[in-house]
Design brief:
Helices cover about 50% and strands about 10% of the residues. The chain is α/β, with parallel strands linked by helices. Helix 1 packs across helix 2 and helix 10 runs parallel beside helix 14.
């Protein structure tokens, strides 16, 4: 759902939801009293976390997986009371209307509407870990506190239940910031799957830079666009950009230069290289061969011909890196060496 689709009433409700923790707390309390037993009884089996730096292909993987009938993900209809998906649907279903898809604000050809899957899980992380979101960037996580794991599990179960529930339904998350939490999430959810799209670093950095410039313009033109990105934890680009402070990256430098994004890429994917249970997806190979069916099978999902057909219809091959160097050659060499190691890693499953 594009920011320009938010009317004045939508913006008022958004500000009500994020202007204070009280409205979210109130709805959480009501949902727990009304549906707490059902939420607790909902199985949480083999959740799927899609994560990487933005512009790697996480949205495409989410869009593909969300088409499978066994997977439950957030959609734009969950906004702004994302933390109470059951109750919010009960309160708003009478006002739900169909909407034509249009290109999202990233200007990357992906078409979305209110029923499209989206990344909203970060709202819970920001609520529970405000100290991690510093002015200079976002600090990575270690082991997750048991109390938070219980809250996240409850939220995941509630979302699955809001989509119909049952023992065969699985939680599906896309959250780019989870790339900074892989060890903690792996420990907290032993049967979870962690999919990390991998894109050629120079092309990835160029896409980063283009999107950051679009974000700067968008946030300068619209205070609501800036507020929306910050409230939902989308700190990847623009005036609300907060880099994740991986080892070896201090967040300093000019984010309007390609070198900045290459340094960021190297630090992030070194963390992925060291992370347990990360399953890499080579996006050049994946998109060229349109491996939707293989992805479903890899995750143990039953054959779903309609979902495969819809997914394959939306996949467009990523162009191979053209060899042009418009950044520090030493950075390009280091990034390419890491990229080739990851492509050859046995954890690169598709």
């Amino acid at each position: 759902m594009a920011i320009e689709d938010y009317g004045w009433a939508d913006r008022i409700v958004h500000r009500l939801a994020f202007g204070s923790p009280i409205p979210q707390d109130l709805l959480l309390d009501i949902e727990q009293k009304k549906h707490g037993r059902a939420i607790a009884a909902q199985p949480l089996t083999a959740p799927i976390f899609v994560t990487a730096l933005a512009r790697a292909g996480t949205t495409l993987i989410l869009e593909i997986l969300a088409r499978h009938p066994r997977l439950a993900s957030h959609t734009h209809r969950d906004m702004p009371f994302v933390l109470t998906p059951i109750l919010w649907r009960e309160l708003t279903w009478r006002f739900a209307v169909a909407q034509e898809k249009k290109e999202r604000s990233h200007k990357d050809g992906l078409l979305v509407n209110v029923d499209s899957p989206e990344a909203f899980e970060e709202i819970l992380w920001k609520r529970e870990f405000p100290d991690h979101y510093r002015a200079d960037g976002i600090t990575p996580w270690g082991p997750l506190p048991e109390a938070f794991t219980a809250k996240l599990s409850r939220h995941m179960k509630a979302l699955v239940l809001a989509r119909g529930g049952g023992p065969e339904q699985r939680y599906l998350s896309k959250n780019n910031a989870n790339i900074a939490r892989l060890p903690g999430l792996a420990q907290a959810f032993p049967d979870a799957r962690f999919l990390v799209p991998l894109r050629h670093p120079v092309d990835h950095a160029r896409s980063f830079l283009r999107q950051h410039r679009l974000g700067l313009d968008s946030h300068a033109e619209s205070d609501f666009a800036r507020r929306y990105a910050a409230d939902t934890g989308h700190h990847e680009f623009g005036l609300v950009h907060k880099p994740i402070l991986f080892d070896g990256f201090d967040g300093q430098g000019d984010a309007t230069r390609l070198d900045y994004w290459l340094r960021y890429w190297i630090a992030a994917y070194r963390a992925v290289e060291a992370a347990p249970r990360a399953e890499l997806i080579d996006m050049q190979r994946f998109t060229a061969a349109k491996k939707a069916a293989q992805l479903f099978a890899h995750l143990g999902l039953p054959l779903a011909p309609e979902a495969v057909a819809e997914a394959e219809a939306m996949i467009r091959p990523i162009k191979a890196y053209d060899g042009t160097i418009d950044a520090d050659p030493a950075l390009v060499a280091a990034a390419e060496a890491l990229y080739e190691r990851l492509r050859a890693d046995p954890r690169c499953v598709l």
